[in-house]
TrEMBL record:
Subunit organization: Heterohexamer.
Protein's organism: Anopheles maculatus
GO biological process: protein transport
Job of this protein: Mitochondrial intermembrane chaperone that participates in the import and insertion of some multi-pass transmembrane proteins into the mitochondrial inner membrane. Also required for the transfer of beta-barrel precursors from the TOM complex to the sorting and assembly machinery (SAM complex) of the outer membrane. Acts as a chaperone-like protein that protects the hydrophobic precursors from aggregation and guide them through the mitochondrial intermembrane space.
Keyword Mitochondrion tagged: yes
Protein name from the UniProt record: Mitochondrial import inner membrane translocase subunit
GO cellular component, one term: mitochondrial inner membrane
Annotated localization: Mitochondrion inner membrane
Lineage, broadest ranks: Eukaryota, Metazoa, Ecdysozoa, Arthropoda, Hexapoda
Biased composition (Low complexity): 83-103
Biased composition, class Polar residues, residue ranges: 104-116
UniProt key word Iron: no
Annotated family: Belongs to the small Tim family.
Domain topic, free-text comment: The twin CX3C motif contains 4 conserved Cys residues that form 2 disulfide bonds in the mitochondrial intermembrane space.
Length: 116
């Protein structure tokens, strides 16, 4: 629900921005109630240009975002591989230490004289 509310809010902000920008650019005369043909044409062109620019920016953003996501995934995978390699190395060191301790214990036990 929060996501939908944010989308509506973003849409309304964009709509208000377009309306404000195009009105300020196109409407010259506030004396009459109706828009002139020039004002209507200007407003149509303004909205069309703004919409086209916005669509282009979104396409570029989607493409760039895709590349960014792929790089992030590669970084995460590399970090996971590094952590797994470190964990395997630590496990091998622990096994080597255990084997060394076991060998020392067996050597110590075999060299001690037995009581008769």
């Amino acid at each position: 629900m929060d996501y939908e509310l944010r989308n509506i809010k973003d849409f309304l902000q964009l709509y208000n921005k377009i309306t404000d920008m195009c009105f300020n650019s196109c409407v010259d005369n506030l004396y009459g109630r109706d828009l002139t043909r020039e004002e209507i044409s200007c407003a149509d062109n303004c909205v069309l240009k703004f919409t086209n620019v916005n669509q282009r920016l979104l396409k570029v953003y989607v493409g760039v975002q895709s590349d960014i996501n792929q790089r992030r995934m590669a970084e995460v995978e590399a970090q996971q591989a590094k952590m797994m390699a470190e964990a395997q190395q630590q496990q091998q060191q622990e096994q080597a230490a255990l084997q060394s301790t076991a060998e020392m214990t067996s050597t110590t036990n075999s060299t001690e004289p037995t009581a008769a």
